[in-house]
Write a structure and sequence with these properties.
The protein is an alpha+beta fold and 166 residues long. It contains seven helices and six strands; from the N terminus they run ααββββαααααββ. It has helices at 11-14, 22-27, 71-74, 83-88, 97-102, 112-115, 120-123, and strands spanning 37-41, 48-54, 58-59, 64-65, 134-135, 148-149. A hairpin with a 6-residue loop joins strand 1 (37-41) and strand 2.
Length: 166
């Protein structure tokens, strides 16, 4: 007889977003920074566009907020995600763990909760590190449309699920 306990499934597979505690909820963020990029919406079509411009509080080196606890007071249009938001916000990147879990999809191989390494999000090409060229306070409003980029709203090639060996 073996004394080994069966492996327990990770919390994101067994716990609904609404039931996660704060630590679980916060740990879902992979630190990619994609949600912190300035987005534009075409008023006529509703189509969303991402830019390579970060929020005024975004630290492009660490891909984290410089004032996370007070972000909503400092940046009035900053969204504090809720489970309902995750299911309805069209601008969340397709790689977002909150979105994936809400859709019933497992976390990808590069997510720090799976890999155990926060740098895998960078190696997989998901992180915005090295790709944000300014923050919103440094770019004149009239030139923001010139900074539209497609990559934040797509899955990077290197981030796609890895196939298991036969």
């Amino acid at each position: 007889m073996s004394d080994e306990k069966p492996a327990q499934a990770p919390f994101w597979r067994t716990t609904a977003l609404e039931e996660m505690d704060r630590t679980q909820w916060e740990s879902l963020c992979d630190g990619c920074g994609r949600c912190c990029l300035v987005k534009l919406e075409d008023e006529d079509t509703g189509r969303l566009y991402a830019t390579d411009i970060g929020c005024r509080l975004f630290d492009a080196g660490t891909c984290r907020c410089r004032d996370y606890p007070n972000r909503s007071q400092v940046v009035t249009d900053c969204v504090t995600l809720t489970p309902e938001d995750v299911r309805t916000l069209p601008w969340l990147p397709p790689t977002c763990a909150y979105r994936l879990v809400a859709e019933g999809t497992d976390l990808p191989w590069w997510h720090p909760l799976v890999s155990g390494d926060p740098e895998t999000v960078v190696r997989a090409g998901v992180s915005v590190r090295g790709r944000v060229h300014a923050n919103e306070d440094e770019v004149p409003d009239e030139t923001v449309p010139e900074r539209i980029v497609a990559w934040p709203l797509r899955w990077p090639r290197g981030a796609r699920p890895r196939r298991k060996a036969p």
